[in-house]
Amino acid sequence: MRSWRATPAETKRALPGDELVPEPRIQITHAVTIAAPVERVWPWLAQIGQDRGGFYSYEWLENLAGCEMRNADRVHPEWLVAVATIGTTLAPWGLAFIQSYAVDKGLRVKDLRFERIDVITGAVLTGVIGLFVIVACAATLFGLGFLAAALLAAAIVPLSTAYSISETLGRKADLNDSFAEARSFYLSFGAVVGVAAVIVLIPGRR
Fold it and tell me: Does position 202 have pLDDT exceeding 60, yes or no?
């Protein structure tokens, strides 16, 4: 089961992240070969999930466990619209930030145990902040949660934008570099913060 439907070549292929654990005790490679172009496969992947397209797995087994799963037999455009609307708001900047800041930190294998603490702490705080924002029945609690979410976004969104722009231009993007060494990175970061500040300070906006 460790190489389910994977060819010998696929099990030996170097994949992103392999360098983090150069000598793993267990290696698992699962693969599915689909004779179709990416643009035809992606819509099916985008609608994966419970109460949507299912997981294209063993439906009877999932329902035996009470999952109430139904596998879709066609692409549902209405689900893709939801992915485009919600996903583009939440996911891409987060992915860009996480990937870039991990490289920026220069993490090595021996640093992974400390990084796990960082990830767990961030996940817990994100949930707590989200709870504060959702619980609007207490005005003070909502205000504190909204402030925390705003501060979080003010730091991370400009950073993720600066990382993305610099990587697109093929320039350096490192917080440890000086302004002269990573000019495009710092200019992008400053521009995003500046534009946001100007919009917030426009008189009469609510």
Answer: yes
